Ferredoxin--nitrite reductase, chloroplastic (Dendrobium nobile), 601 residues
Amino acid sequence: MTSYSTSLQHFGVPQRLCSRCRRRPSREAVGELAANSTAQEAEAGRLEARVEEREGGYWVLKEKFRAGINLQEKVKLEKDPMSLVYEDDGIRKLAATPLEEIEASKSGKDDIDVRLKWLGLFHRRKHQYGRFMMRLKLPNGVTTSEQTRYLASVIQSYGDDGCADITTRQNWQIRGVQLADVPSILDGLTAVGLTSLQSGMDNVRNPVGNPLAGIDPLEIVDTRPFASLLSSFVTANSKGNLSLTNLPRKWNVCVVGSHDLYEHPHINDLAYIPAEKYGRFGFNLLVGGFFSPKRCAEAVPLDAWIAADDVIPLCKAVLEAYRDLGSRGIRQKTRMMWLINELGIETFRTEVEKRMPTGSLERASPGELVMKQWERRDYLGVHPQKQLGFSFVGLHVPVGRVQAVDMFELARIADAYGSGELRLTVEQNILIPNVENSRLSALLEEPLLKKRFSPGPSILMKGLVACTGSQFCGQAIIETKARALRVTEEVERRVAVTKPVRMHWTGCPNSCGQVQVADIGFMGCLTRNADGKVCEGVDVYLGGRIGSDSHLGELYKKGVPCDELVPVVVEILVEKFGAVPKVREEDHEAVPCDAKYLYKI
């Protein structure tokens, strides 16, 4: 093979000809060589790590990369948020300080509005001043009756200000928390094996897995051990992993264990897809999926395969590449896919490969184990487990909202009929596993299942998802949860639907309700009604798909006033989904039963 000199490689001139290449190079050639050298230097500079480890283990943005950084990055530079965990009993001191005193300084305001998010605490300044939402870590959505009772006791203590939500990442969020109570709540979480650490802001969010893991007769792999390992790694066993607490933005991960793709891999920053290679089980990898106001993108193949033993090293390598190289400028352009697009997938892959323990990364396997032609199964209702004589029961939780009394009852039922275990899903529902078949009839007669959390909801209700909305969230433009229920109930009065239709609501363009993966999505906005007055409205999305043929929905209609939405949805269902109009008498019910539970009225 002919060798090439470094300086002449660009031109493809063999070394053995160099002695005859004595003519002065042309001006064009010199210019091209200089440009190439400059480009190589620029690329090398772009691949320089932007953060460095400092005393105490904190990772800090280097001085040379601080120009043009966003506000959140400035807050992190002024004081590392994890100092509230590690330094001088930080959270206990903050919790003991009167709110008025905290508010007297910019640093204090930044503590309660920004830095506390590293502890999973979100100040509801706009709608519940002085109250916090607390987000947990619940890998694979698996929780226990003991944990559920503890969370119920916390929100019960806050009366009408307390409630809980199931999130679209198989997780609990509890509401109404007061700052003074946080240290004791954190102690209580530790006692029952829970943590809220690193669940908000620029951290790794709850690892998602198959909600049927370990009990599904058709599962590919049990995702629970992998999700638990990922969560333990990310949080250093709930003590805080300082090497991963200064990411450019939030970061989502999931492990796929089913043909149904309940885990929604295409909207995660990193997704592990089961695949075999050389007779070994492992995972192909997808990277970069995300939603944001500026852009939504499906994850793309990294063209890499890892053995199952390398799940954590691979995760670490991807996170470190993102931490080191990701942009920290315009906040809406800092998710990992922006970095992938900037570098190109091959360069990004090389950076991940460099950070693997072996310095190498195998190419993707052609032997993916997820079946491409697969009809997604409904997990609501009663279904047999792989364990002979046992079943799991899927319960529909209307838009994911629960009260303390509901949680106490769920814990009791899990103990009485199952193994004391509950599982949350990304569609905001709950599964009770390990129910002996002989106990199923009694379980189905429980008042909670009859009145609140039905195992057999209507077709439209079973696919309904809604974010927090303006009741609690300061970023939401519209109220979502009660409105989603009211609109759906009214639509069901007008049309008969024969096949599942997934409808998602989100209160703002951040799309926490994931409207782009829904058959019909509603994104909150302000618009004008027929009288020209500003009112709450939605942008309507159509065509989102989940599963092996996943596809993000597209904008169908902008600025529909919420009060005029029902006929629009009816029209869509008839024209696009084969719904049949009902002949009905007009009725004028006030607040639907389910909506009452959202507001305790």
